[in-house]
Amino acid sequence: MRFQHWRPRFQTGALACVLLCAAAACGGDETDTDTAADTVSDSAPDSAPDSASDTAPDSASDTAPDSASDTAPDSASDTDAGPPPVLAPVAGEPNFAVAQSGWYRGDLHYHTNYSEDAKKQGGDDLDVCLEIADAFRHPDYTSRHPELAGNGLDFIAITDHRTDAALSDPDFTHDHLIILPGEEYGGTGHAGIWGLDHHITQDPIAGETPAQRHLDAIAEAHAQGALFSPNHPTQDNSWVWDTPDIDAIEVWNGPWTGFYQSATVAQIEERIASTGAENPYIRAAVTGPADGANASAVRFWQAHLTAGVHVPIVGGSDRHMLLSAALPATYVQKPEAEAFAALDGPALGVEGILQGIREGSTFVSRSPVGPQMVLEAEDGDGKRYRMGAELPGPGSYRVHIRVSRAEGGRARLIAGPLRAAVDGRVTPEPAVVFDEPVTAPLVEGSFEWQVPAEGGWLHGVVLEQLAVGPLPPEGQAILEQFSQPAEGNPLVVMGGALLPLADSSLVLDPSACDPDEWTPWMLQCMTVDVTPLPTFYVPDGIERLLNIYFEDGAVTEYSMGAITSAFLARP
Question: Taken in order 35, 523, 261, 234, is the CA torsion positive or negative?
Answer without folding.
Answer: positive
